[in-house]
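Progress report, Aim 2. The chain analyzed during this reporting quarter is listed below.
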Amino acid sequence: MARTVGDAALMLSVMAGPDDRSPISYDVDTRELLRAPKTPAVKGWRVAWTPDLGGLVQVDDEVRAIVERAAGVFAGAGAEVEAACPDMSDVPEIVRLTRGLLMVARHADKLPAHRDVLQAGLVENTEQGLALSARDVAAGELLRTRQWARLREFLGERDLLLTPTTATPPFPIERTQNKRSFLTYAFSVMGLPAISIPCGFTQAGLPVGLQIVGKRRGDAAVLRAAAAFEAARPWVNSLPPVIPQRATVHRV
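Predicted structure tokens for the chain:
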């Protein structure tokens, strides 16, 4: 979505702020968002990192090693870094229940006429949502509330939580991926600010992302942390190798 943290902050500053069309929007000092990348620092910050949400997600070994090295960059910048994670064991069930409800709201009316052209996973998610009972939906919200309490307590003693963005390196487009993206969904379903930035490459030259999660409404802190990593390990000129393609020049 953006090439640098500064560009991401600029984009966010345009998007952020109150809007009567969205009742959950709130006032934001967008100048603080723009200042954040210009003051990159994590010295003295308390930073936790987990490769797999406390064992919840099976993560590729190379991804795990690259993210562990990325956590070390924060330690080198003066942060107090520890391997730690709150209890995230309810996340799969929270995702199943809340995502099902969301899919019904967005897509249930499309199924009768367009089932054959809709993505199979979307159809499956929507049908799972239609099968939910009122008690299921209520259970999902109760689980989310309890998960929020655990995260709030955990981040009350820390400034950031680091995870991989994805559990595996990029894979061929022909390959299907049926597993949920719990690493990112776990925090978006809580409404926490998070940014994903490049943090290295596999031996095959495939990019690996680092997710930086902050406290509630701590967008500026997340941007400052991302900018600190970018300053220590700049990526703007680091491109993954591209498979050579024979180009054919047509002369007119």
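The chain has nine helices and five strands. Confidence is low (pLDDT under 50) at residues 245-252. These observations will guide the mutagenesis work planned for the next reporting period.
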